[in-house]
Amino acid sequence: MDKITRKTSFGQWFSPLNLQLFEEQVEIMKLDYYTKKLMTESFLKLLLFAQLEEVESLHALSDCLFDDQLQKGIDLDSISISQLSRRLNGLNPDLFQILFLDLVAQIHAKTHYTKLVMPLKIIDSSTLPLHLTNHKWAEFRKTKAGVKLHLRLVFMDKGISYPKKAVLTTANEHDRGQLEIIVDDKECMYVFDRGYLDYKRFDRMTDDGYFFLSRLRKNAVVREVYDFKLPDGTTVLSDQMVLIGTNQNRTENYFRLLRVLDSKGNELQLLTNRFDLSAEEISEMYKSRWAIELFFKWIKQHLSIKKFYGQSESAIHNQVFIALIVFCLHVLVQLETKSKRKTLQISRYLRAALWKPARIWLRKIEEKAIP
Fold first, then answer.
1. Spatial distance between the Cα atoms of 238 and 219, rounded to a whole number of angstroms
2. Average confidence score pLDDT of the chain
3. Model pTM?
4. Contacts of 331-338 spanning 24+ positions with Cβ under 8 A
5. How many of the other CB atoms lie within 10 Å of CB of 23?
């Protein structure tokens, strides 16, 4: 990250955004045709600001433009609530998804090192509740509405993780239906929970060369084929080669079944198609699944998706992808500065130094004295 800069902290923070790519997409989608005031780039910066400051509504966001520094930072002096709403509801979510994927590629380029151990990619989903009266299109129960964020999270060393692929559906979409969409890389180990159990798909993944680790239900029908010897002092209860399922619905491939205890003393059954790792290594891999739970918790608590600004499907999707962009920008700051700061700390320091020179914010992140 360029330390000698005259940018504000806000400007430095969003500088990894590929604005040339953004402008090309705006031109292709003709988003600024006949636009007199709220240009798409200014709207993007305003939405990023709203996420950082956890602005609760479009009314509040419009009021924020009373700030001279914000006006200068986004090149916009005022805007009506109706204009904000039309923009949010009318923008194609593909625009922000393209920006998100470009940031993911930048993170990947900075973290993709040759390793003996395959990288872990964790799959899970989280439901984001919506008000049924305003979001009839997202109804999934008689009294509820919601969208579901299906996510693939890359888990790295030193506690850093980042979202690599995101799919948004209505909340009634089952997790299993998204597995084949999210699984597309053979050079990694996928980790997921019981919601993705599908014996036929596990067979297909194994035949196609994908590696996975999943939790198995307690009532699963298991036929033991071979017992592997456990080393002394292990916390693993058993390690077996098995066939899964009944005679009518049984896996064709042999799998490995481990029984382990979680932190609360409950027994878990872990199923994998990898036989080249030790039982302890497999057990530790599953523990990494906590990272995606923390991600969902973080994004719901600290990014502005607790209260959605719009009612249309496009508006909801736009806001979620902006939230993912914000998280990726924080990760890039961590990587560029080689900081040990958590994303929450980076965000807090950014908010405190938003319109100050970027060097002040960067030195604080790097734990250096501020002159």
1. 17
2. 89
3. 0.91
4. 331/107, 331/160, 331/162, 332/16, 332/103, 332/106, 332/107, 332/110, 333/1, 333/13, 333/365, 334/160, 335/107, 335/110, 335/111, 335/160, 336/1, 336/110, 337/1, 337/362, 337/365, 337/366, 338/366
5. 13
